[in-house]
Amino acid sequence: MSSPSSPATPTFVIGKARTRLLGLTWDECIQAFFGGNALVAVIVLALITVFLFREGAQFFTQNRDNIRIYREAGLEYVDYMRQQQEDHTALTRYLFDVRLRTLKHLTEVEKISLAEANAKLAPFDDFAGRYGDAIDPIRGLVSDLTDVATAIKTKYTVGEDAKIEREQLLAAGKTKEAAAVVIQPMDFKAELAPIVGTLPAYKEAAATVTQNLDTVLATIPALPVPSLQPRMDRFKQLTHDYMATFPATLHSMEVWDYTLPVPMWKSFSGFILGRQWLTASFWQDWYGIVPLFAGSLLISMIALFIAVPLGVGAAIYVNQIAKVSEQRLIKPTIEFISAIPSVVLGFFGIAVLGQALRAISQFECLSWIPGFPFSERLNALTAGCLLALIAVPTIFTLAEDAINNVPRAFKEASFALGATRMQTILRIIVPASLSGIVSAVLLGLGRVIGETMVVLLCAGNRIQIPDFSAGLGVVTQPVHTMTGIIAQEMGEVPQGSIHYRALFMVGIVLFFVALLINFFAQKIVRKYRISIG
What's the CATH code of the domain at 439? Predict the structure, then answer.
């Protein structure tokens, strides 16, 4: 007679009611398996979060030091004058735009030759030349001080590098080599004396520039195209507004103090609200996420504008109208799009779509469309069209599932009351599945905002806030995105540098944007879920 099995021995007995493995029922084994998968997902999410914050956490401290050096080396002081020069340059570009519009009207509307048009614009060109030269006193001052400020910053950087080298040698036990490292002391007050001492020269230069501009504006010519004259009146007002900023600039220079501390909030706001992403600059690096976030948002909105009608419309048609043979063709075709590598779509955008859209925009009959014609084949519109193609399968699949989950009794009741098929679809089926459709749209948004290769190849990669004053024409402007900047620059930055950590901060923002989108999608589903049965 055999002895009974030890309680510690694993058993796997198939009976009528249940199966046991290591003391667990079969149902408990399945539950443990899927529960373990959920646990792994939570662990992976936690690890990603920890990794992102570990690599990006020191960014704000480094960025504060970056801004502090910018101040102590005198770059901030010089930039007060540089801003005056850049504002004048912007006004000069405004003049150039007026000339281009006038020339286009003369040659295309009035049908005169280019030589005759340029002859008519000769007084305007003389005025524009004198206007551009009016800033020369400040331009010369900025040029001289730029060399002084960059020399101070370079000297400081060399000294900091020498300190790091000495610390590394001491840590390695090389005392003799460490003692040989020369560290030049920095006396910022003495170094900044030549820069701060130019304040009287700036006062004189500002007065000269103001006088020059007043003299030039007194001789402003009338345009040969009367319809464009309001632009010149606007230019005159803008110039007066520009001259009114000189006293405020002078006051800022008078009260400027290089010893003022840089608070941590300024480092934070410089990243969150910063309008410049400027790296590897001889002057000063800036890490502002606004142009990248605006580019990502613009492209995502273009993609959703195209993908939502296509995806939701296809889902309604396939689920409610299409025949079985059409369903067998349409569903696999749409879902196959998601299998196309994004890099292939990017190459398609470069070689075909971008070129085609630019060619279409040149048609005279389409000139009424905002932004047409345009010359940049790689822009937000090209990237948005391709991202729409990527988002359609996600929106279609989830929206079709939401429509399919509407109780059949709703449809039958509608038909019983005499409603047509279209009335039933628009007034019963779609409203009943609206929560699932909204969730599908949000998940589609999460899909496109995290796309990398398409935007990197097709968006134009211009790090600049889109000019939303252009109206709908903004869609034809080149932009850069959060995902694109990470992919483009991560492989080129030294590990641990401020640039490296700034890219991780962009990743953190992108990570939380995706989590937020998914959170709202799930919340909508839970709140408006249709109870079946």
Answer: 1.10.3720.10
63 lies in a domain?
Answer: no
Instruction: Based on the fold, state whether residues 391 and 523 are members of the same structural domain.
Output: yes
Question: Residue 364 carries which DSSP code?
Answer: G
Give me the long-range contacts of 200-209 (CB less than 8 A, separation at least 24).
201/141, 202/81, 202/138, 202/141, 202/250, 202/253, 203/250, 204/137, 205/137, 205/138, 205/140, 205/141, 206/84, 206/138, 206/246, 206/249, 206/250, 208/137, 209/84, 209/134, 209/135, 209/137, 209/138, 209/246
DSSP 78-112: HHHHHHHHHHHHHHHHHHHHHHHHHHHIIIIIS--
Residue type, position 357, single letter: L
pLDDT for res 434: 87
Range of the domain at 344: 296-528
State both tokens at 22.
Answer: 């290591």
Is the distance from CB of 433 to CB of 353 less than 8 angstroms? no
Report residue 18's pLDDT band, with 50, 70 and 90 as the boundaries.
Answer: very low
Residues 246 and 311 grouped into a single domain: no
Looking at 210, 234, 257, the residue that finishes a domain is 257
Domain count, the chain: 2
Record the tokens describing residue 155, joined without a space.
């000297």
Is pLDDT of 89 > 90? yes
Please tell me the predicted confidence (pLDDT) of residue 11.
47
Residue 32, pLDDT score: 65
What Rg do the C-alpha atoms of the chain give, in angstroms? 32
pTM for the model stands at 0.86
CA-wise closest residue to 152 among 198, 186, 115? 186
Summarize the confidence of residues 253-263 as an average pLDDT: 94
The two structure tokens encoding residue 456: 């990197």
> Can you tell me the mean pLDDT for 225-249?
93
Contacts of 87 (CB under 8 A, 6+ apart): 242, 245
Contacts of 253 (CB under 8 A, 6+ apart): 77, 80, 81, 199, 202
Give the per-residue pLDDT at 80. Answer: 96
CA-to-CA separations, 359 to 259, 364, 466, in angstroms, rounded: 56, 11, 22
Cα distances (angstroms) measured from residue 276 to each of 248, 300, 456: 23, 21, 19
